[in-house]
Design a protein that fits this description.
By secondary structure, the protein is α+β, with helices and mostly antiparallel strands. It is built from 6 helices and 8 strands; from the N terminus they run H-H-E-E-H-E-H-E-E-H-E-H-E-E. This is YjgF-like protein.
């Protein structure tokens, strides 16, 4: 049953039981409805004698399902020394949402900055790390909806953009690039965050 069908049936049931006009029921519904999670968008009509109706039970089941998926949180960590030193995860998944922390081109075994002279190669390396984190949490680059890119030098913006298009051009996520950033290491030219939604 779709949301529209559920709401139509709920209105009809209430109208038959209580003799209220469609407009009165609509106003009452708008005032007394409880809206569920964003993933399982649903409503529960709080009108007498509807509590045991198939409509109410169906919507309530969806509402509870939506709540349950947000109770569990998964973390993805790497041997990047900054994660342990600063106390954060490379990426976190909660429900359908995945958030990848700001990622730079750090060698996880040595802690050295890879490709210190090339923003383009750093960006390529960063996207490899981001994709690895996404896959570690059961999603992929195809689910990325937003990228936030921070670059130290204006002259590197074109090369960073080229690397982004090569990695995500087929996905086409929303993206922001900010120039003039400063990072914890002078050799770092680029840092990138990613958000994904997997359904």
């Amino acid at each position: 049953m779709t949301e529209g069908e559920a709401l139509t049936e709920g209105y009809g049931h209430a109208k038959k039981k209580h003799g209220q006009s469609w407009l009165q029921l609509k106003k009452r519904f708008r005032r007394e409805a409880l809206w569920g999670s964003s993933l399982y968008f649903c409503a529960e009509v709080i009108v007498k004698d509807i509590f045991e109706s198939p409509v109410r039970l169906s919507l309530n089941k969806s509402f509870n399902r939506g709540q349950d998926i947000y109770e569990h949180m998964e973390r993805f960590t790497t041997s990047n020394p900054y994660e342990a030193a600063f106390g954060y995860s490379r990426a976190i998944r909660r429900g359908p949402h995945v958030f990848v922390s700001g990622t730079t081109s750090i060698d996880p075994t040595t802690g050295a900055v890879l490709f210190p002279d090339s923003a383009y190669l750093q960006t390529q390396q960063i996207f490899k790390e981001i994709i690895r984190a996404l896959e570690g949490l059961g999603t992929s680059k195809d689910d990325v909806v937003r990228l936030r890119i921070f670059v130290t030098e204006q002259r590197d913006a074109g090369e960073v953009g080229r690397a982004m298009k090569e990695a995500f051009g087929d996905v086409g996520p929303a993206a922001t690039m900010i120039v003039g950033a400063q990072f914890v290491r002078a050799e770092m030219k680029v840092e990138i965050e990613a958000d994904a939604i997997t359904l």
